[in-house]
Amino acid sequence: MADALASPRPISLTRENNPRRAFLLAKLSSKPSPDEPEQRSPSLSAFLRKFSKFGSDLGEKTQPSPQRSLAPPPRIKPRLLGDVRLVFNVSGRRFETWKSTLDKLPDTFLGSTEKEAYFDDDTKEYHFNRDPEIFRYILNYYRTGQLHYPKCECIDAYDAELNFFGLSEFSISECCYEDYSEHKKQRHEQLQELLLPVLNVPTKATTLRQKMWSILDGSNESGHPLAPLCYYTTGFFIAVSVLANIAETIQCGALPGTTKILHCADRYPKVFFTIDTVCVVMFTVEYVTRLYSTPDRFRFFRSPMGLVDLVAILPYYIGLFLMSSKTEHGGFDSLFVTLRILRVFRVFKISRPSQGLRILAQTIKSCVDELGFLLLSFMLAVVMFSTFMFYAEKLMKAPVTDFKSIPEGFWFILVTMTTLGYGDMLPVTWLGKVMAGICSLSGVILITLPVTVIVSNFNRLYCQNNPDIAKSPEATLLG
């Protein structure tokens, strides 16, 4: 025994790293069955007890090797007697489940015998040429009883899969039903916008109203020979009206015998009045004709473009009425200025023939939530950084500062966050300059957050309104 202890080879006889000793101790500690007689001799038992004591004493001198505790194996729930494992091959991806899981919903496609028509006897699988990504959510509905809606999936594709597998949209869980309803509503509005020209313009105009509407609203797509003429004529008068509205504010010199510099509207009033009259008469004829020939007058009257057409002509007629009453009542100068301001809405008439401007308006409408988040974030940042700038200048005891109050710092923070930087207000202390730098970086980060969403929405709407571009290989450049 002494020679064995003096040997240079390490001896480790602890319970942890000696499996043979552990086996012997297990045999020693196991109690015999009442039906089996004790077969172990007393001498062997005594030897094992002495051997166990020797190993324990030796284990106190040697450090046992650390062992990693393993997690207990998962408990597998036994299946029902006679249950069958089913395999679904969905466009090359395999899904497995139990027949008892599908039997929970017997009125659906997978829970009924209708699925047997897709069973392959050779592979013992059900083959479906469907979307595997959406099928994963459908199969989880049988397992968990909750049908979820993935926001990244197309709403039409999702509805098609639900319809194929015999599931109703009312089966969608409450956590996802609000998003599903919102996407469904947006898709319905998109379809209305896409189908409205098709519904309003018949394939062959028969009545006078239909012919007039195809000329006015169809432009080049209506097929009527007079549609391009009306299209470019309206665009010409819109451009003349906008340019005249701009040119009348230019200084054109003084009248003969005077030194006062006058604007062109006051220097040549008859010229601009004639131009304005001709354009307004043209716009009035167009508006009345559209109102008469449109298939839905109430819809046209309250539509955004219908309101733009009305606002474009109303200031002129109100101005004529006030000019006739000026000699009797007087004091309408401020109202004349207001009416001239309203004429600027004529520029929105350009958006009628321009498809790009219409898509831009639809993009802004679809990004109301993102733009609202941007506006709210800017308001919070302006208040926060204005407070920091005011107290930073006050804490450093600047002798002269532009930040005399928190509201006076709103303008500086606004132009700094938008990286405009007029330079009319400047911090003079080092702490104020540090805060201004942080404010500028925060503005850059804040502006870039909703930009990607707006651009993606614009590309999506542009491809929807131009199917030929969406199918071309160059369409990937828009993304």
UniProtKB/TrEMBL annotation:
Keywords for this protein: Ion channel, Ion transport, Membrane, Potassium, Potassium channel, Potassium transport, Transmembrane, Transmembrane helix, Transport, Voltage-gated channel
Region described as Disordered: spans on this chain: 57-76
In which domain of life is the source organism classified? Eukaryota
Q: Which residues form a coiled coil?
A: none
Q: How does it sit in the membrane?
A: Multi-pass membrane protein
Q: Which InterPro entries match?
A: BTB/POZ_dom, Ion_trans_dom, K_chnl_volt-dep_Kv, K_chnl_volt-dep_Kv4, SKP1/BTB/POZ_sf, T1-type_BTB, VG_K_chnl, Volt_channel_dom_sf
GO biological-process terms attached to the record:
action potential; protein homooligomerization
Extract the PROSITE patterns matched here: BTB (PS50097)
Q: Which GO terms describe its cellular component?
A: voltage-gated potassium channel complex
The record's GO molecular-function terms, alphabetically, read: A-type (transient outward) potassium channel activity
Q: Which SUPFAM superfamilies match?
A: POZ domain (SSF54695), Voltage-gated potassium channels (SSF81324)
Transmembrane intervals: 271-288, 300-318, 371-391, 434-455
Q: Which PANTHER family match?
A: POTASSIUM VOLTAGE-GATED CHANNEL PROTEIN SHAL, VOLTAGE-GATED POTASSIUM CHANNEL
Identify this protein by name. Answer: KCND3 protein
Q: Source species, please? A: Branchiostoma lanceolatum (Common lancelet)
Quick one: which gene encodes this? KCND3
